[in-house]
Amino acid sequence: MPPRTVHLLVLRPAVECEWPGADHYRMTRDASHLLPSPAPVTLIDADGRAVAQAASAVPDGAALVRALGSLVTARRLNDQAYALVRQGRLAVYPSSHGQEACQVAAAQVLTAGDWLFPTYRDTVAAVVKGVDPVEALSLLKGDWHCGYDPYEHHVAPHATPLATQLPHAVGVAFAARQRGEPTVVMAMCGDGATSEGDFHEALNFAAVFKAPVVFFVQNNEYAISVPLARQTAAPSLAHKGVGYGIPGERVDGNDTAALLAVLGAAVRRARAGEGPQLIEAHTYRMQAHTNADDATRYREEADVAAWAKRDPILRLETYLRAQGLVADADLAAFAAEAERVATRLRDGLNRDVEPDPADLFRHVYATPTPQLAEQAALVAEELSREGAAR
Amino acid sequence: MTVHEKMTMAQALNRALRDALAEDPSVVVFGEDVGPLGGVFRVTDGLTADFGETRCFDTPLAEAGIVGMAVGMAMNGLRPVVEMQFDAFAYPAFEQIVSHVAKMRNRTRGRVTLPMVIRVPYAGGIGGVEHHCDSSEAYYAHTPGLHVLAPATPADAYALLRAAIASADPVVFLEPKKLYWSAEEVEFPSSAPGIGTAVVRREGTDATLIAYGPAVPVALEAAAAAQQEGRSLQVVDLRSIVPFDDATVCAAVRGTGRAVVVAEAAGFASVSSEIVARVTERCFHALAAPIRRVTGFDIPYPPPKLEHFQLPGVDRILDAVDDLQWDLC
């Protein structure tokens, strides 16, 4: 192939250059379309008022009302789970209290056939996607690692190692696209995970193969105790998309309307075959990393108080009330539904299920190896001896 | 109808990939340089041309990404066969393999299974520079949830790779680099046994050599040399490290009463130490002497000009056989 003639944009006056690969060189010059907005996209401000001259239209009222209902349930689930740790029913609970707008929007923009890849802090997103809350918390209750069937609601098992689930999300998207299915994959992670190699590799693979993945980073300011400034020197996490040729966008992570708009647009774009996108939501982890953590050792109460004023639920409620889209009766109905889900969670987690020791060996291979069969027999014999001794 | 074709191990592996791609539309082959180049060892030669680049393709140069993407593809209906290019270049994928490939079935109580194969050109003996000659089998064999195979012949390379691709569980498939160019008549369709079966490669009555992968031809050579000296050595080829064929190995050792394990990997905390432990636990009273091992030294793989010191050779094997307390029986 003859070398192409290219005008370099960065040099004045324009210099003509010819060499194999010059076309790629030219195309990599302009990255402006990949850059995120200078400030996070906000459609409804912290006081619950529509932002004038916003980047996009506020989503329709029905979607926002539905989201508010989910937010109320989400908050109740977070707080119920937190309480269940104190009662010893859960080993630990990484709460998304304060991040409920991200949780709800991530699931709400997906169809039933789309996949969600949650982290350990994204239980609420999994529940909004359809997973039973009791099954979703099996991991933390200690009954089994993944308590739900990932294929039932297209929700991958919670990822506890950081960013390792992101290449899986790319693979699921790749396979769907190869079969011509319209599936989109929502791949979630936090600010800390963007420092992991698998984050980099997943974005790079998704971009190269144009996989329909939306990478959704909830930047909640802290990775356990380490603040964002120690994770990255990038202008923003959304800027990391440029390095892979992926458009990045920033969004107010406590503004449900902005999240639905930005994530919804990314999902539509991915579904249309235009490839992956990286979305960074600016939010805040209102509680400690888990119940086992002490956040007072590394952050100021004043910061927490400031973020409390940006609460996603109050903000959306204020907006919808002002628009006349919800009234007291709706809020009461949302609260009742949230209580119903919390009761179900409580009842489910208070119910002791005797785990079956045979399960230890049952799901290691399709057919147990002869060695595992021997070991399973050993445990069965121990149990029968114990039974006989009782 | 059975046909025989003479081919190298690399050609047999290529044939296995080719036949799997042709028979099963869910099989996809990918990795670094496996596309138009055909892989640095030409194992994927011609696959992109013949099956198209949706079935055999190059990826960015990132092993964790390759294995991680394969996990998602296997979750969603495909049967990925990925190449790691070199043993020591597979280590970036280690977390994906150990934490996800090996555990997905278990984590999800069998709801999500990962039918996938990780091909690893492995071990030394080719004059490779550092990071190209590791015997990494123990890392994988120590990880529950993986099958670990190491063929030693072209016929087994074909049969075991077909079995690996057909398996419902993830397989780490270790291809001895120095045997890529070894050739033999390969039978089609294959009648070789599948995963989890060891075979007796050479019958013998005085002692049993237990080997796998690149050590098998060396063990056979040692047995032939011993024959000249009037000693009859049996050779067992494990083929499948996980699952381990205790039955075949133990029957062989019980038959001769003496054993030497031959492996290229460093001996400490290794597959060879596992073999000695297993056989001793099961065959103690049939043993006339402690089991000896001839393995790589516990050192980083040496540079090419020194690698012959590291590789188990015929003399070391025969010396170990000589040490099996023959005067006591």
How would you characterize this protein structure?
The complex is a heterodimer of chains A (390) and B (329). Chain A is of the alpha/beta class and 390 residues long. Chain A has helices at 22-27, 61-86, 100-108, 123-128, 133-136, 138-141, 150-153, 165-178, 197-208, 256-271, 301-308, 312-322, 328-350, 359-362, 370-389; strands at 6-7, 16-17, 115-117, 185-190, 213-219, 222-223, 226-227, 248-252, 277-282. Chain A folds into three domains: 1-30, no CATH class; 33-350, Rossmann fold (3-Layer(aba) Sandwich); 359-389. Chain A contains 15 helices and nine strands. In chain A, the strands form three sheets. A five-stranded parallel β-sheet of chain A has the order 3-4-5-9-8, sandwiched between helices. Chain A has a two-stranded antiparallel sheet with strand order 1-2. In chain A, α2 crosses α3 (100-108), α2 packs antiparallel against α12 and α2 runs parallel beside α13 (328-350). Chain A is globular, with a radius of gyration of 24 Å. The N and C termini of chain A lie far apart (83 Å). Chain B has helices spanning 9-23, 47-51, 63-75, 94-101, 104-107, 137-141, 154-166, 215-228, 246-256, 271-283, 307-310, 314-322, and strands spanning 3-8, 27-31, 56-58, 79-83, 117-122, 147-149, 171-176, 183-188, 199-202, 207-211, 233-237, 240-242, 259-266, 292-296. The mean pLDDT of chain B is 97. Chain B is globular. Chain B is built from twelve helices and 14 strands. In chain B, α8 (215-228) packs across α12 (314-322) and α9 crosses α10 (271-283). Chain B folds into two domains: 3-188, Thiamin diphosphate (ThDP)-binding fold, Pyr/PP domains (Rossmann fold), CATH 3.40.50.970; 199-323, Rossmann fold (3-Layer(aba) Sandwich).
Report the count of strand segments of chain B. Answer: 14
Structural class of chain A: alpha/beta
Separation of the first and last Cα atoms of chain B: 50 Å
CATH topology name of the largest domain in chain A: Rossmann fold
Structural class of chain B comes to alpha/beta
Largest sheet properties of chain A: 5 strands, parallel
- Total strands of chain A: the figure is 9
Share in β-strands of chain A: 5-15%
